[in-house]
Q: What sequence folds into this?
């Protein structure tokens, strides 16, 4: 049976460290979160960030917009916050309702306040192996898996927020990386080769026992319900559960980014 | 036996098109190339670019620096060219002698004049699937291989100039991509799975017949001597030779970038 990762525990430890660090700085860091519409999952994620921010001593400012707001109004708000000295980091909770141009809105966040690390410049630095910081989910994965050199990593899901930046970072750290996506044929053939299998698709039950090599490390970055079936624990040597795995570590990693950007 | 790709022919066709396009524009595009030291391969590559630029009607300005030059002097020169309206694109011939900070020098090229597409911002746009243009070698590979959706691509060599950006672009186009590097264990196991195998390491003879799946498309981006052994043609369905394969198409792709940046 696999070791089951305790994300709550690692998150707690990281929070304690961060709290101590924040106590030492003169100006309290501040995170601004933009939430558009009323997607229940998005509201939950924002709430989790808020609670964690309050626990560690980060000011948390939530700006809610109705779905009917104009795109320009959101961008104008972000630009105002870009110019506000007290704001250390800004993020837009994704996904946005479909009528918005996600790329354009995200890009309006100044690269120095881009706490999600989604600005082209920050992603480019990452690709070049010169990251100033990492997207929170990537940071969380790096906190969980070690010794990447020469290991075979298979990532399922090629998103801008997780899959693609993670592939670049793990390659820079010496891993052999395969990036699968919805167009991949015979997914199991690829996942079976993985020493480390990372799934980040948001498709519950996508990763089944028979798709995993005996002894593999399995990292589930799937949202809400997780991508990995429970009985994968019978073949994996290490497994991150959902909930209580990568999720809590991602939240505190985001807050670490806020502190980093504030200094 | 594999079809052998005729890079000279495709490059010629592309040059003719570009020449016609340049005739229509009012201001002649200009490429500035910075060459530091006297590496013979670098001098050859610069010469090939110069000849091609002259054939299509692009002004070519070569700035040679001695190895003993200070880094700041190179950056000052680049910054001068950044501000010069007549200059459409600037590139630094790589590799630089070891005493220079390649990243810092390259970064001094303004993203709007970054003809190699190596500025973090331009690489980030590429990762996000919003490329304004491509690194020349990536563009050349895209001109040669089509129908990427669902195909399994294995890239050997994870450089900033070819391997990593190519991996991102091909993934965005729907391919399943494996990125191998010098730390990869059992390289043949990976290369054997490829529908399309791209090698870009500069290690002559790295890719041998027994490492290639029957019927695979093999793209050799290895410099000077090529990475792929000749007898791979016996198993591949399509092969790009060195010289006369990807190389000439890369040169004209670079010139296409110059014209794109000038408009």
A:
């Amino acid at each position: 049976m696999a070791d089951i990762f305790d994300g709550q525990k690692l998150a707690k430890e990281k929070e304690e460290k961060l709290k101590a660090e924040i106590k030492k700085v003169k100006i309290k860091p501040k995170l601004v979160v933009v939430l558009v519409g009323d997607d229940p999952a998005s509201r939950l994620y924002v709430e989790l960030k808020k609670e964690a921010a309050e626990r560690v001593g980060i000011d948390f400012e939530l700006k809610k917009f109705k779905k009917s707001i104009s795109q320009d109004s959101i961008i104008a708000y972000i630009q105002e916050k870009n110019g506000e000295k007290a704001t250390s980091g800004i993020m837009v909770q994704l996904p946005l309702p479909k009528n918005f141009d996600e790329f354009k809105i995200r890009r309006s966040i100044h690269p120095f306040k881009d706490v999600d690390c989604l600005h082209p410049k920050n992603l480019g630095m990452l690709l070049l192996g010169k990251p100033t910081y990492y997207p929170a989910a990537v940071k969380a994965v790096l906190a969980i898996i070690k010794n990447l050199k020469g290991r075979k990593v298979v990532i399922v899901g090629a998103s801008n927020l997780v899959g693609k930046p993670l592939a670049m970072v793990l390659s820079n750290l010496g891993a052999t990386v395969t990036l699968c996506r919805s167009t991949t044929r015979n997914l199991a053939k690829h996942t079976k080769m993985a020493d480390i299998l990372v799934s980040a698709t948001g498709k519950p039950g996508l990763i089944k026992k028979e798709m995993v090599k005996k002894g593999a490390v399995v990292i589930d970055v799937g949202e809400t319900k997780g991508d990995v079936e429970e009985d994968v624990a019978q073949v994996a040597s290490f497994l991150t559960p959902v909930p209580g795995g990568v999720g809590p570590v991602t939240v505190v990693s985001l807050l670490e980014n806020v502190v980093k950007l504030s200094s």
